[in-house]
Amino acid sequence: MTEQAYRLLEERIVTLQIPPGEFLSEYALVQQLGLGRTPIREALQRLAREGLVVILPRKGILVSDVDPEKQLLVLEVRRELERLLCRAAATRATPQERAQLRAIADGMDLAASTNDDIAFMRLDRDLNLLIIEAAHNEYAARAMRLLQGLSRRFWYQHYRQAADLPLCARLHAAQARSIAEGLGLRAAATCDKLMDYVESFTRATA
Questions:
Q1: Rounded distance, CA 3 to CA 169, Å?
Q2: Which CATH class is domain 68-204?
Q3: Whole-angstrom Cα distance, residue 151 to residue 73?
């Protein structure tokens, strides 16, 4: 139940259904989601650890702001972690995980050719989770999961104004294929190219 509560709340915050600056009520969330107070509270604590909400004693739970300067700090850490995860995944991915990476790469190419933002966002989430799993490093995975929600929310808020979605999709496809092919150095290089683009996108929103 806690995982269900987390997924529902995380998606609503990341997709701005619950906007930055809004105060949340545990009681209201229990009523809206039809879940118990304990899973709601545990989900909110997890979201607080990820930086998506701020728990203010005696005031309530505040959805955190979206700030380009803070997002650049997130990317500073994410770049190093993602490079490590890509290299590890290129070495350790199972045959099934490599097949999934190739399928995501094909899907990203299709999203690039059709400029399909919904398909891209779903594939982006799938790729992020798959790289974490394929790296088989629980410590790097734990750290990366803390950053993903913040990155996805920032992208969702600004991509219509500042993103080159076809280019971004092609960069993701190249990253996925290099990992699937077991090319650690190329995987790290494609990761850097993707992070260079994401950083330039973030700076363009400031």
A1: 29
A2: mainly alpha
A3: 11
